[in-house]
Write a structure and sequence with these properties.
With 178 residues, this protein is an alpha/beta fold. It is built from 7 helices and 5 strands; from the N terminus they run βαβαβαβαβααα. Helix content is 43%, strand content 16%.
Amino acid sequence: MKKIVAIYPGSFDPPTNGHLDLIARGSKIFDQLIVAILRNAEKAPLFGLPERVLMLESMTAEFKNVEVATFDGLMVEYAAKVKADAVLRGIRAISDYEYELQMALMNRKLHPELETVFMMPAEQYSYLSSRLVREIAQLGGSIKDLVPVMVEQRIKEKLDPAVKLQHARNPTKRRKRG
């Protein structure tokens, strides 16, 4: 019987409990699930690629059929390279569906044998995105229960409150024009 391999691509910056939910559920469906972190030189991520790999490896250590890898370029080319049969994608809202449908159709055009499997997140993660987590954390809000504890700690280290407090106490003075 053929082993079904799927990839779950994304930037995972930072990895969230929503990502972990899809990984856990995807690991039950597929024989092998590759969490594929996109190397995107055009973005300025909060976490470097090695940091995201380490966090995701730690988060997924309990899943024996899940591995973490990185890729750049077209996702369909990476899928062909690892002989993936499917792509796992999460859909939180109608806006996600419209974007993901367009991507799935283009991927089908480029690689007809690659199936896209859409999965809804657990209800408590239906609003969650890495972008929102970054914004909340950067503004000093609580990200408890949005990300695994280890990721929360890494974000706190990255966004050292002492540095933020120093900037708040000593704002850059505006120069008077004269």
